[in-house]
Amino acid sequence: MRSELNAGKRVLLDPQSSILDPASLDSIPNPQSSIRILGIDPGLRITGFGIIDKVGQQLHYVASGCIKTPAGDLPERLKVILNSLGEVIAQHQPSHAAVEKVFVNVNPQSTLLLGQARGAAICAAVLANLPVGEYTALQVKQAVVGNGHAEKEQVQQMVQRLLKLSGTPSPDAADALACAICHAHGGLGLGALATKGFRVKGGRLI
């Protein structure tokens, strides 16, 4: 995994983060007919992001990675999330954003901090004039795995299969990509995905 250091922030990119395999570019239709979606899995310590193109009913991987905030004051950490996502948006030019909703944690303080990180992520999208879709973790897992209570490993495996990735994305990047996939299909569930040749068993695509 490659890291980029800049102004106190660290953005980790998954190995697949270059725009597809050059050999496969000829098979992708005119990008003007596609929709590019940025999925965000917010977190104060690690914020995952994933970008996909939806061309018709087909999904194509573009990039993914993680934004890691340094230890320090809350405002500075939120600034890192805001600025880093702003850079991702400027580089990849998505037309939509999808953000996972905050769940209520046992620890109220943790829930509050997560909510603030989520707010910074939404602000980055709104500042770029992107429409923002919001989905619960249950909706995302249902859309991608077919099981709203799937484990993180199942989400990672399904994202890898659906996007034809050469390796397994990190948990945070996988959650962000899953959120983008959910948005691409309107949260309608596994039946809306291009799953020809696969079948579902125990929440897994086989």
List how many beta strands DSSP finds.
9
Structural class: alpha+beta
Distance between the termini: 28 Å
Parts with pLDDT < 50 across at least 5 consecutive residues: 1-8, 15-29, 187-206
Radius of gyration: 16 Å
Estimated helix fraction: 25-40%
What can be said about the biggest beta sheet? Answer: 7 strands, mixed
SSE order in H/E notation?
EEEEEHEHEHHHEE
Number of helices: 5
Which sequence of strands runs across the widest sheet?
Answer: 1-2-5-4-3-6-7
State mean pLDDT (0 to 100 scale): 80
Shape: globular
Q: What is the strand content?
A: 15-25%
Can you describe what's shown?
The protein has 5 helices and 9 strands; from the N terminus they run βββββαβαβαααββ. The strands form 2 sheets. Strands 1-2-5-4-3-6-7 form a 7-stranded mixed β-sheet. A two-stranded antiparallel ribbon has the order 8-9. A hairpin with a 2-residue loop joins β1 (2-6) and β2. It has helices at residues 74-92, 108-127, 137-144, 152-162, 171-184; strands at residues 2-6, 9-13, 35-41, 46-55, 58-68, 96-100, 132-135, 200-201, 204-205. Mean pLDDT is 80; it is low at 1-8, 15-29 and 187-206. It has 206 residues and is of the alpha+beta class.
Distinctive features:
single chain, 206 residues, alpha+beta, seven-stranded mixed sheet, 9 strands, 35% helix, globular, disordered N terminus, disordered C terminus
Topology:
Elements: E1 2-6, E2 9-13, E3 35-41, E4 46-55, E5 58-68, H1 74-92, E6 96-100, H2 108-127, E7 132-135, H3 137-144, H4 152-162, H5 171-184, E8 200-201, E9 204-205
Parallel strand pairs: 3-6, 6-7
Antiparallel strand pairs: 1-2, 2-5, 3-4, 4-5, 8-9
